[in-house]
Design goal:
Order of helices and strands: HEEHEHEHEHEEHH
Oligomer: single chain
Number of helices: 7
Number of strands: 7
Radius of gyration: 17 Å
């Protein structure tokens, strides 16, 4: 497996490299869908971990547009390493503050260190705690992994739940059918910051981590429910309990 460099925190959050990429990328994304963001007033100042649901391969682009254009912040993703192998794109991503995460074959100590440095510098790291596109048959958020809450506890920072709905109409869940529509509204809704001061980084248990993660993901699911005008499920989908793989295109693997 090839190794990829991790980004260095720039002197200013809105670096010229990111602004240059956004100058060209934002109009292109606007051709795919029309992002509407609500709840911006809930955002705290300084660094925080923004967590969201993962429905479509387009989710990172929808969130990036919302974070940069509407939230006025620069998103730093913990993104799967395979994306960094794409020619040209893979070289560009670290230069605009995106962080490769390895699923197998290499330690993630360096990527996590980079994420912590961005957060300590008062910037925003975006995490999809599900780790892959949802496998829930009705596209509700699944149970999450504990990476986001671990960062929050270690650094004493808030987790901000956010959710989107509508991207799946442009590119469906595990689908290759691409239907760009600049008039199609994709909603992004931001919840209130969640604080976990009661969990001490030196003594937190795996059970406490799981409970805190479940609490975060249920709040994300509730935000999805508000946009869908439906009640979110009380129990989040667990792929392992349903005999599904944790990663990869489970529809393709059937």
């Amino acid at each position: 497996m090839s190794e990829h460099s991790v980004p260095i925190v720039p002197g200013k959050e809105h670096s010229w490299q990111f602004r240059l990429v956004a100058f060209f990328a934002a109009p292109l994304l606007r051709l795919l869908f029309n992002i509407k963001t609500t709840g911006v007033e809930n955002l705290p100042k300084g660094g925080y971990i923004l967590v969201g649901n993962h429905v479509s391969y387009l989710d990172p682009f929808a969130f990036a547009y919302s974070v940069f254009i509407h939230m006025k912040r620069v998103p730093h993703y913990l993104a799967k390493e395979s994306i960094f192998r794409i020619p040209i794109v893979g070289k560009l991503l670290p230069k605009v503050g995106q962080i490769p995460v390895y699923r197998t074959g290499r330690s993630n100590d360096e990527p996590l260190r980079a994420a912590k440095e961005f957060l300590a510098a008062g910037q925003v790291v975006v995490v999809f705690p599900e780790g892959t596109l949802t496998r829930d048959p009705n596209l509700w958020p699944m149970r999450g992994k504990s990476g986001a809450i671990r960062l929050a506890i270690e650094l004493g920072l808030p987790v901000v739940p956010a959710a989107h709905w509508g991207v799946e109409k442009v590119l469906g869940n595990y689908s290759k059918k691409f239907r760009p529509n600049p008039f199609h509204v994709v909603n992004v809704r931001i919840g209130k910051p969640m604080h976990f001061e009661e969990l001490r980084k030196d003594g937190v248990t795996n059970k406490e981590l799981a409970e805190a993660t479940d609490k975060i993901m249920k709040q994300v699911a509730a935000l999805v429910g508000q946009m869908r005008n439906e009640e979110a499920p009380k129990t989040l989908w667990d792929p392992t309990a349903s005999g599904q793989t944790e990663t990869g295109n489970f529809r393709k693997d059937k």
